[in-house]
Amino acid sequence: MEAPDNSGEAPAGRLSSDSRPTHSEDGVDLTLIRWMLSLTPGERLETLQSTVRSILRLRDVQSGS
Looking at the predicted structure, is the pLDDT value of residue 55 above 50? Predict the structure, then answer.
């Protein structure tokens, strides 16, 4: 499960079929919201748990544990 390409550009030689904006007026990345909403509840939970594990590992490294 990978995050979408956030470049906002279509691959060379192809037009983007998605003409929706990539960011809101206040700078929120709408592609990440669309990606998360495309996941099942289980996939969303798995993504959240993976993020929490990463944060905990970073805390451990920072504290010298």
Answer: yes
